[in-house]
Amino acid sequence: MSRRVVRQSKFRHVFGQAAKADQAYEDIRVSKVTWDSSFCAVNPKFLAIIVEAGGGGAFIVLPLAKTGRVDKNYPLVTGHTGPVLDIDWCPHNDNVIASASDDTTIMVWQIPDYTPVRNITEPVITLEGHSKRVGILSWHPTARNVLLSAGGDNVIIIWNVGTGEVLLSLDDMHPDVIHSVCWNSNGSLLATTCKDKTLRIIDPRKSQVVAERFAAHEGMRPMRAVFTRQGHIFTTGFTRMSQRELGLWDPQNNFEEPVALQEMDTSNGVLLPFYDPDSSIVYLCGKGDSSIRYFEITDEPPFVHYLNTFGSKEPQRGMGFMPKRGLDVSKCEIARFYKLHERKCEPIIMTVPRKSDLFQDDLYPDTPGPEPALEAEEWLSGQDADPVLISLKDGYVPPKHRELRITKRNILDVHPPSGPRRSQSASEAPLLPLPSSTSQQQHTLETLLEEIKALRERVQAQEERITALENMLCELVDGTD
């Protein structure tokens, strides 16, 4: 009698669990824009969510620790004249975020560590180059200040945010709307999907398509693609009969035949893939679904192995995916999602069950840290470098606030700019580290602002106490009369 052999994997028992109610972020008006982006971005310091805003576009940025009900007057990041369609945190500076909008612009913002008193309205820099709405943003994984944007004009632009200049413009490769763009691990190649049903591998610095596959999924609905650790491409799409489908492709050896192709279910929601290269697990979150399905990608047939499904009652409006350095390694947490509901955001934690309290180094190989491996100019000249890795053995502590500031391009001008910071146009100069004296001034300013905020809260509390005492006194006087 033959016995079925169970596949060995340390991730076979990964389970998902929603955080407790007091760990959620309540009373957030999540954007209702019909756009297939995740609407949420998260890093070890902040949670950013695109929200409803009258007369333009806005998103809210909350410190991770600020759970519970969010004040309806909590400051927003506003500046776009149209709805915000995508946001993405810089992987090399946890205080910098980029936003893309229906108004054709990209804005890069510096988020302070302290809670601002009023809306943040002045971006560090505004990038203008698209002729139609911008719906996709992606920072380069290893080069400092390199940002990719894709717009409704079917153009991909790669920017040097430090100078506001266009490094590369890929404007004749996509005949129709671009659905997704993904860098490979060292940022030398791009994988793109398009409404023309073609999956393309692009070398951006040579401005050429290295490989392409027509109708990787035969359906007309949008397709998504991400690079895997092995250099394969993982895709989600639809069959001709509108069933959702996932595929794994090898663009180097045989792009015509899939390594794996699986039908899943019948639903209209586009599956957003979130890939973790450290564990080789891909998580599929469908917009409008109430579940997260996850699969392990290996070198053994059938190559894409179903692990489990996290299910809940509420459908998801969007999803944020925490970088590995933001996870709690003491609890064997290997992934954390931030699920958007209509009025709240709920953390969902993926855990490998282990009895030991010791650091599990087989679950946590060295992972990309916040230091860039290259400068923008080095990458543009043809250099490639793998991400600079860090160990999570003692946990991850985010670096102190690092300011990005636009200064004059003239290298002889060594004096810091005078006067308050203002929004600069894309033709002005690079984001460079502040001189140490200016950094101290910035730190002093932040300390003063925090003290002013504390004083303001104390004055407000005293005013409320005085008002209450006056009311009591009036009642006593009325009683004696």
Describe this structure in words.
This protein is mainly beta and 481 residues long. It has two helices and 34 strands. It has helices at 376-380, 436-480; strands spanning 15-18, 25-26, 40-42, 46-51, 57-63, 68-69, 77-80, 84-89, 96-101, 105-110, 125-128, 134-139, 146-151, 156-160, 165-170, 178-183, 190-194, 198-203, 208-214, 224-227, 233-238, 243-249, 260-266, 271-276, 281-286, 291-297, 304-311, 318-321, 333-340, 344-351, 367-368, 389-390, 405-406, 431-432. The strands form nine sheets. Strands 1, 2, 6, 28, 29 and 30 form a six-stranded mixed beta sheet that branches. It has a four-stranded antiparallel beta sheet with strand order 3-4-5-7, with no helix packed on it. A four-stranded antiparallel beta sheet has the order 8-9-10-11, with no helix packed on it. A hairpin with a 3-residue loop joins β29 and β30. The N and C termini lie far apart (99 Å). Mean pLDDT is 88; it is low at 407-437.
